[in-house]
Design goal:
The chain has 463 residues and is α/β, with parallel strands linked by helices. It has three domains: 170 residues, no CATH class; 65 residues, no CATH class; 201 residues, 3-Layer(aba) Sandwich (Rossmann fold). It contains 14 helices and twelve strands. The strands form three sheets. It has a five-stranded mixed sheet with strand order 3-4-6-8-7. It has a four-stranded mixed sheet with strand order 9-10-11-12, with helices on both faces. It has a three-stranded mixed sheet with strand order 1-2-5. The longest helix has 23 residues. The two termini are 26 Å apart. The relative contact order is 0.11.
Length: 463
Amino acid sequence: MGLHLRIIIATVLLAVSLAGAQTSPIVDLGYAQYQGVVNPANNITHFLGIRYAAAPLGDLRFRGAATAGQHDRCTAGHERAQCLQGTSGTSPTNPFETRATEDIPAEDCLFLNVYYPSNAVGAPRSKLPTLVWIHGGGYVSGAASGYDEEDIINQSARGVVVVSIQYRLGVFGKPAIFFPRFFGSSRWVQLQGKASFLAFEIHIEYIKYNSCTSATDPMSCLRAVDANTLRAVNTNITAAPFFGTFVMVPVVDGVFIQQRPTLSLAEGKVNGEALLSVANSFEGTIFVNQNVAITAAQYSLELFPGFGTDQADIVSAMYANDGDELFQVNAVQGESIFICPTYYLLNAFPGRSFKGEFAIPPGLHGEDIAYYFPGGVAPPFNNPAFIDAFAQSFTSFIVNQDPNLKVDPTTITPHWNAFDNLYTEMLFNKTADNEPVVQPIFASGDLLERCAVWDSMGIFTSQ
């Protein structure tokens, strides 16, 4: 299906390039025609809700994505349904609590959107770089509709095409828990399901929720269950793991994912030419229960069930002088899951990687998103010079694979050395007087040492 999706994206881009001067641009994907819409305020053309796979309903539930069937011309002028949503783990405070969501997503959700700069009738510029935006959410939540892709085009001096995709979430995907080849290490499966669950136990619990326990073919039974029933089950299962963790994650199966990611990175097995990676200063805070007293050692044992007391003691010693207990726990989460893996990625692209730190207070995970997409609700630090410097570092990299080749040479971002040049990073922050701070810094030696220790414990963290 991955190849099929790439073909669809390429076909859309080629078709719009050949659309010519029409009242509204039309693309023919073979199985369907889509009519785009031009925003007259800025001459950005939208193709929204392009079906890239068959509806994953009925017998296609829990299966790999299938090729979309034939259908007639569609007006691609509005967002389609989000995929059914879950949540991150909440245990021990409220395991198995059903939570309502604010909207009504649907199981039929395999759509993508395409945005490109055009003239007034939808004719595009020739051959632009393409950004494929894959929303986050821990494989349990998120949607393409959460972003305004026009912002990326505007911040790129109208120099990119943006494609945003949706994918099935939570138990509605092709979850590892149903396929033995995806079980991998039971230790790893427990990593994100730390509520006394093994993969098999989650599977059985899932079947029990839907009265399929006695079915001859439990999978056929589950495929026939009403989607709203499974939606409630999905919420309960995704809320069950240890606080701030996610149960529906990839595992090393030896076939599709052949080894731990850190091993592949260390061997230089990367599929890309260059890397720009931005981490936030305090990535871990929102994934830690701020109301529960716990030591760094205890927390590491909960976060990584593969740990023993030896590994927990190492963690305790690493963070012993790093603020109070809560600060230490936040750092354990943020560095082990987000910040240190960023450095492993950077090292896999020697001479071709650039590192940034987003530090606008409070510097929590995800707070940088508002600055990539600043056209809607104003970001908390609504400083145009800062926003342009931050967002255009990203778009300059998309266009040129180098943030120093700026789409707008007047931005305040100084020269940005590659990371392996003295472990250089670019800091994006502000002063107490709300003046932008965009300047080179050097990665902390203490942090890099801790990351080396985390890397050495990869067999226990399953990273």
